[in-house]
Amino acid sequence: MASTIISRIPRGNSKFARKVPSRFPHPTTKFIQPKDRIKKWNIRPGDRVRMTTGKAKDVFRNGENSSEGWKVYTVKTVDLARNRVFLEGITNKKAQPVPPLPDNYDTLEGQEKTNVDNAPNFIDIMRPVHYSNVQLCVDESGEVDQHVFASRLKSQETHFNKYTQRLEWRRVAPKLTGTVAAETHLEETDMPWPKPEKIYEFPDPDRNDTHNDEVRKRTLHLIDVPLIASTSGYDALFPTHLLAPPLQNQAVSDGYLTSVRDPEHFDDATRRIADTLMPLHLSEELSPRWARGRQRKAWGVRREREEEERRVVGKDAVREWEAGGKDRGLKDILDLEQISLEGVNLRPRTRAEVRDAAQTSYMVENAEKQAEVYQNRRAGMTFDLGSGEWVEGEKAVEIERKRRRRERKERRKAEKMVYLRLEQGENMVVPEAVRA
Fold it and tell me: Ribosomal protein among the record's keywords (predicted)?
């Protein structure tokens, strides 16, 4: 198949539009996928490292080979998103536009005019070096050609520091390169972290800062549940179950703000009621019941309670079984003539079997109760605490009304089909049963 010559760059709606052909010179992508980024950095700003690749003048001290030693650089900063480090002294010269001549150029003296003419038009930009192209310097106290470097680094004892709120670990060098003793190669060398050049100092407080005593002072006083339940207006203002509608009455918030703004027009009882109900109002406003976090937490609490009840049921069943003599009378029952199991060898039950049977029975009963609650909720029923039974609620009445309406529509449709009558028209064949 003969190859076609591309005469122009694709444009318009083509899928190749706005894409530079690979034959053209273009910069490579600098974005590193999150899965390819280094998780634990063992090189930080302040470390002394050497470059393992690059130009000879940047790697070796003599600019040719390693006979006189390697150049050691200080890490200035790191780029966590690109797996790059910036070394102090490794720069690129970037050209910049020549600045325009000053307005008083003609009036300048000889030396000043020469300085303007010879002003450099380039600046030094730090060049990034890949993380894998540097090695940490372990010891540079000896001669320049006898420095010790870590050819491998690994992290140990990873833990979370609750004071700094970050992960920390200890870095070690399992393998060294350079003039080191033979026994040093057999043990891991601990590599301390570099100390910061400048310790952060907190600024002096000013008039806009809050004093520590005021910060530590407790301003939220939660009210006990019995007092909240006995407060008038609680049932009408706040939901009493998970499926209740959201807040509709803003009287609590309005009364609270008014009492704070103008406390003289409110007595102590009204102010106490507002202070009692306001935390509940804020909790419902800022963290609603249908939030994912609260639903997950409630689900976890229910599971913990079910697991605790299941353990208690198992313990009680084992205790009752042991108090009743275990299965001591089982053999006498099997020997009865009505049972007709003489000679059958049945071993007594163990504690684990009794406990598992009781817990399984509890889980089955609990699942049946949950299914009953789900069906009643779906049918619009509400649970009456006084009678202890499920009664019809507003939703159940609405469901029944819709069901009757649906049946009425179906009945009318069927009646309409029964009494259907059609008039005879041109080019029509109408059966006699439905002919008008």
Answer: yes
d(Cα 51, Cα 406) in Å, to the nearest integer?
81
Cα–Cα dist 169/286, whole Å? 38
Task: Please give the Cα distance from 155 to 398 (Å, whole number).
Answer: 65
| Contact call for residues 348 and 330 (beta carbons, < 8 A) | yes
pLDDT digits (tens, 9 = 90+) for 91-124: 876 656 667 777 788 888 888 888 877 776 666 7
pTM for this one?
Answer: 0.42
Q: Which of 59, 49, 117 is nearest to 86 (CA)?
A: 49
**Domains with residue ranges and CATH for the chain:** 34-97+118-191 (2.30.30), 223-290 (no CATH), 308-378 (no CATH), 393-436 (no CATH)
247-271: per-residue pLDDT in tens?
A: 666 665 666 667 666 666 666 666 6
Single out the residue of 41, 43, 46, 44 nearest to residue 198, CA to CA: 46
Mean pLDDT (whole number) for 281-309: 83
Give the Cβ contact number of residue 281 at 10 Å.
Answer: 19
CA atoms of 418 and 435, how far apart (whole Å): 12
Q: Give me 43's structure tokens.
A: 């090189």
Closest to 47 measured CA to CA, from 161, 177, 193:
193
The residue whose two tokens read 């703000």 is: 257
Place of tokens 């060098």: 173
**Which residue is it, tokens 């273009």?**
26
Q: What is the pLDDT of residues 312-330, one digit of tens each?
A: 999 999 999 888 888 776 6
H or E segment and range at residue 285: helix 268-286
Q: Which residue, 140, 136, 139, 141, is CA-closest to 152?
A: 136
Please give the pLDDT value at position 245: 63
Contact 81/37 with Cβ under 8 angstroms? Answer: yes
Distance CA 137, CA 47 (A): 8
